[in-house]
Amino acid sequence: MAEHRNNKDAVFFIDPPYTAGGKRAGSRLYAHSEIDHERLFDICHDLLGDFLMTYDHAPEVVALAKRHGFATRAIAMKNTHHSEMSELLIGRNLDWVD
């Protein structure tokens, strides 16, 4: 991301481990799950190109997105156990998601 942050034609898909707000799914699934979520949102805010992030639908994540001026949309998904839940899409403009 750092290498292409000033490229307005670059598009980023970001799917970090779901560890924000004390969630543990990411730490169980990935060897490298520790992430500074606030810093990731700061980096995305400074990108010249577009991005789409997926995150756990948690109040802390919605608050991070709101503080950075990002749009959010909850979407239906199924986890590995086929339980229905929602995931959060985050981007600058998600009008295309309906």
Descriptive notes:
The chain has 98 residues and is α+β, with helices and mostly antiparallel strands. The chain has one domain: Rossmann fold (3-Layer(aba) Sandwich). 24% of the residues lie in helices and 28% in strands. It is built from 3 helices and 4 strands; from the N terminus they run E-H-H-E-H-E-E. It has helices at residues 25-29, 37-46, 59-67, and strands at residues 11-14, 50-56, 71-78, 84-91. It has a 4-stranded mixed beta sheet. It starts with 10 loop residues before the first strand and ends in a 7-residue tail after the last strand.
Helix content: 10-25%
Largest sheet: 4 strands, mixed
- Known CATH architecture: 3-Layer(aba) Sandwich
Reported by name, the CATH topology is: Rossmann fold
Helices and strands, in order, run as EHHEHEE
Low-confidence residue ranges: none
Q: Give the total of domains.
A: 1
User: Going by CATH, what is the homologous superfamily?
Assistant: Vaccinia Virus protein VP39
CATH class: Alpha Beta
User: What order do the strands of the largest sheet run in, or round the barrel if closed?
Assistant: 1-2-4-3
What Rg do the Cα atoms give? 14 Å
Strand percentage lies at 25-35%
Give the CA-based shape.
Answer: globular
The count of β-strands is 4
Number of helices: 3
Mean pLDDT: 86
